[in-house]
Predict the structure.
Amino acid sequence: MKKRTLLSMALVATMALATFTGCGGGREGSTTDTAADTTKTEEKADADTTADFPGFEEGATIGVSLPWLGTQNWKEAEEMFTAQLEEAGYKPIVQAADQKVTQQQQQIESMIENGAKVIVVGPVDGSQLGAVLEQAKEAGVYVIGYDRLLENTTGVDGVVQFGSVKTGELQAEALLKGLEEKKGEAPYNIELFGGGPADPNAPNFFKGAMSVLQPKIDDGTLVVVSGQTDFTQCATVDWDNAKAQSRMDSLLAGNYSDKEIDGVLSPNDGIARAIITSCENAGQEIPVVSGLDAENESVEWVWSGRQYSTVAKPTNDLVAKTIEIIDSLQAGNGMPSTDVTADNGVIDVNIYELPPVVVTKDNAKEVFANDPSRLELLK
Ligand code: BGC
C-alpha cells in the first residue's frame, strides 16, 4: 500500500513535469488522488467544461487500437468498430497489436500521424503506453480507454468498460452456487486462475472474486488444495489458454492423484475450456468452472452442462457507448459526465461503466433474448 502511494507520488511528480514542458492539448487531466480503486464521486466530472474539449470535423479519422484478437470479444470489437464508425460517418483505422507493447505504441503513433481526432485504446499492458498517450494529448487527440484501464498517464480522457471488480464477484458467486448445486456437501476442493498480469482488468477480476471466496476459504467451506491463492501464482501470462491448461495439468498431477477437484475459478471462457479439457484428460469428473465473455463455444458448453457459468459483457453495448462519446467530442460537447472514477496512478480517470451479467443454463435464454446469434446456440 505504502509502496504504491510512493510510486504514485513519484509518477505524479514526473507527469506534472511532463505537463509543464509539453505544449498541452488544451485539456487538463482530472485531479490527482491516490485512492486505490474505482470510486463514486459527487458530480466531479462536471469540471470538464466544453471549452477544454474543442470539437472536430464530421468524417474525421478515428483510431482504434486493440490488444489482440485472441478472444471473441476483441474480434467482435474489431468488426463492430469498423462497421459502426463507418456508419456514423467517420474514417476508422482499426488495428490489433498481437499482445506486443511495442507494436501497439507504433500503431498509436501512426494513428496520430494520420490525423486521428480520437484514439480508442484497449491496452496490451495498461501501464506501458504513458509516453505515446502523452504524445497524443499534446497533438490534441482525444484518448478513450476501451475495456481496460489506461494507467500511469495523463493522456486519457475517459475509459469505457464493464465493472471489473464486479465481474470477479459474479464469477465467484456463480462458482459457489454451482458447487452447492452440483457437488453435494462442503468442503469443496478448488483451484484459482487469474488472467494476464499486464492487463489491469485481471487483478481486479481476481480481487472481486477473492472478496467472495476468501471468507469461504477461511471458514473451511472451500479448500484450495495446492495452496496457491495469490494473484501472481494464479495469473496466466498473456491470457494464453495453453499456459492455463499446462498449469492445470501440473496442479492435477501434483495434488489430485487421490482427490476430486470440485471447482475452478476461471477468469474467462478460453481459460475455462482449457481447464475443463485438462480435467477431462486427467479422468476427473468435470468441476464447476466460471468464465467470462459468453464466447460462442462456451455458451454451447454452458447449455450442455460442460461449463457451469460465464459472464456476458456485450461488445455491442461497449462499442455503442464509445461511439456515443466520440459523437459528443466531435460536436464539441466534451466528455459526458459520469460519477465513477478510477485512480490510474497519476490522475482520477472518468469511467463509463456498464454492468456485466452472469449466465448459467438457468437464465441463458433470458440473457440472450436480444442476441439472435447466441440464442441460436441454445439448442
Ligand atoms: C477482457 C476480457 C478478455 C480478456 C482476454 C480482458 O481485458 O475484459 O473480455 O477475455 O481481456 O482477452
Summary: The chain has two domains: 9-156+315-355, 164-313+359-375. Residues 1-26, 28-37, 41-50 have pLDDT under 50 and may be disordered. The domain at 9-156+315-355 is CATH 3.40.50.2300 (Rossmann fold).
